Amino acid sequence: MDFNHKELHGIWRIIPSSSITEIIGNSGFDFQILDCEHGSYDFGTLENDIRACELTNCESIVRVSGLNKVEVQRCLDLGANGIIFPQLCSFDDFEIATKLMEYGPKGIRGYNPFVRAFGYGNPKHHTRNRPKCLTIIETLDAVKELDRILTLKGIDIIYIGSYDLSAQLGCVGQMDNSKLLSVIDIIIQKCNSASKSVSVMINNKSQYDVYKSKGVSIFLHGIDSFKIQHIFNDTIKNMQITPEP
Q1: Is the separation of the CB atoms in 118 and 128 below 8 Å?
Q2: Lesser CB count within 10 Å: N end or C end of the chain?
Q3: What are the structural domains of the chain?
């Protein structure tokens, strides 16, 4: 899948479940972000969900807990199509993230052809596509260094972490706060100028229309846990069922 020249739609995942992964993949989503920072994934459940993504031709992106070489390497060896890095602050942080994705001499990723990503040593799997590097802009320090960060060729996609930015701006969870919206617009404009793909999370069609008009092409449609809870809440409400006294 070409993340740079196509509109794409994905969802955040914090509930490990190959069945849910398969259902989402069959629903037409282009990718799923399997969250090892806030979700309850371990390497076993992560491997199963990566398999389920492959089964439904849905890309698997893993959000790792940070700049941990072994963790990133193991996720890639399991067959993840990409890694998304959280809580990066400085240019150096972002540069390290790109190096964790590449073999030497460009990077510091270790190479083992006998892992799942390479078919356990099967030569026909050794031409696997380069995994994508996604980084989150969710700190004000990163916003200050954004011009320099955008010069890093190893970054494929910038995701705007609006919730963390709202906390740093003193408007926690206020997604319509003018200070937050102004920072988001600045990030989008700079990414567009640098020809760097940018991604945001949206909650409705109106937000999709607004951000698409601004040049965003990669959209996250919320989080699995909230979506499931919302559906079941609506099911009861729509039936107008009231508990007996």
Answers
A1: yes
A2: C
A3: 8-238 (3.20.20.60)
Residue with tokens 């890095």: 85
Residue 223's DSSP bridge partners are 12
Cα 47 versus chain centre, distance: 17
The number of C-alpha atoms within 13 Å of 241 and in the hemisphere containing its C-beta is: 9
- Digitized pLDDT (tens) for each residue of the chain, 245 residues in all: 555 558 999 999 999 999 999 999 999 999 999 999 999 999 999 999 999 999 999 999 999 999 999 999 999 999 999 999 999 999 999 999 999 999 999 999 999 999 999 999 987 766 667 899 999 999 999 999 999 999 999 999 999 999 999 999 999 989 999 999 999 999 999 999 999 999 999 999 999 999 999 999 999 999 999 999 999 988 888 876 665 66
Task: Report the residue count for the chain.
Answer: 245
Torsion of CA 122, 76, 94, 190, to 10 degrees: 80
CA torsion sign, 39 to 42 to 47 to 48?
negative
> Under 8 Å CB-to-CB from 141, ≥6 apart: which residues?
89, 90
Q: Please answer whether residues 6 and 219 qualify as being in contact, where contact means their C-beta atoms are separated by less than 8 angstroms.
A: no
- CA–CA gap between residue 112 and residue 137 (Å, rounded): 31
183 Cβ partners below 8 Å, 6+ apart? 140, 143, 165, 169
User: What single letter denotes the amino acid at residue 116?
Assistant: R
CB 131 within 8 A of CB 84: no
Name the helix (H) or strand (E) containing 237: helix 224-238
Task: Tell me the torsion sign for CA atoms 83, 220, 88, 36.
Answer: negative
